[in-house]
Each structure stands twice: as C-alpha cells, then as structure tokens.
Amino acid sequence: MNLAEYFDSVKGLGVMATADPGGNVNIAAISSPVIMDDETAAFIMAGHLTYKNLQLNPKAAYLFKEKNGYDGKRLYLTKIEEKQDIDLIEKIRKKRYPIFTTKYDNESKYVIIFHLDAIVPLVADGVMKPGIKEE
C-alpha cells in the first residue's frame, strides 16, 4: 500500500509539532495529510499557532498513530508552499473532515504543502536519517 492509500484508508490520530524561531514548540491534533505525490503532502489548517509557527519556521513533524496498537507513521516535513485556493480547500475538507462542516466553514483556511523530508514507522529501531524514506 502506498502512502496515499495508507492515509486514505487507515483510521487513527494525527498530531503535528511545529516551533517558532526561538524553539518554543507547539503540538496540535490535525487530520491525516493528503498525499499529492511521492515528494509532497498537503494539510488544511486555520490561522492558529501551528499555522503561525510555519510562517516563521518551515520545519514540522507529523505523527500518526493507528487506531489500534502502536503502528503508524512519522513524517518529517518542510513547508514549500501555501495556498488559499477555496476549491482545493473544499476538496480536502470534504475528504478529511466530512462531519465538521460548520466549524470549518467559519474559520480561515489555508492549504499548506510540505516536502516529505523523511518517512519512518511510528516505532522504529535506530536513528532517522534525513532524506531516507520508508519502503
């Protein structure tokens, strides 16, 4: 199963960690990414602290834990683009947040596109090396 199929079909909990330039870390629950291609992933978000940190520091980490057990993925990310394309936001929102229409209709939304720097299992032996992708 490729990464796009994985995030389209596996249920679980995702969190994203970001930091401001001073190293003050924020972590927030966030839905699964939409995998654009082998190198990029997109998330939609409102203009809260995670978004604000990404304006100042493009690096982020995303952790996804599958619903049962300790399987999952860790994505190491670098922000490469930001869009306010309403059609793209709606497409992603309907795919990832189908039951939360009222809440998300009332918030500013952005599509943040990240380069996938590294992908590793949630629980892995050894040290993650930048640029290495999980097979």
The chain-level structural class is alpha+beta
Largest beta-sheet details: 7 strands, antiparallel
Low-confidence stretches: none
* Helix-strand string: HEEEEHEEHHE
Whole-number count of domains: 1
Overall CATH architecture: Roll
Percentage beta strand: 35-45%
What is the CATH superfamily classification? Electron Transport, Fmn-binding Protein, Chain A
Write structural notes for this entry:
This protein is an alpha+beta fold and 135 residues long. The protein has one domain (3-121): Pnp Oxidase, Chain A, CATH 2.30.110.10. The chain is built from 4 helices and 7 strands, in the order αββββαββααβ. A 7-stranded antiparallel sheet has the order 2-1-5-6-7-4-3. β5 (59-66) and β6 form a beta hairpin. It is globular and about 35 Å long. The chain starts with a helix and ends in a 14-residue tail after the last strand.
Give a short overview.
This protein is an alpha+beta fold and 135 residues long. The chain is built from 4 helices and 7 strands. It is globular, with a radius of gyration of 14 Å.
List keywords for this structure.
alpha+beta; 39% strand; globular
Explain the layout of strands and helices.
Layout: H1 3-9, E1 12-19, E2 25-29, E3 34-35, E4 40-45, H2 49-56, E5 59-66, E6 72-83, H3 86-96, H4 101-105, E7 110-121
Antiparallel strand pairs: 1-2, 1-5, 3-4, 4-7, 5-6, 6-7
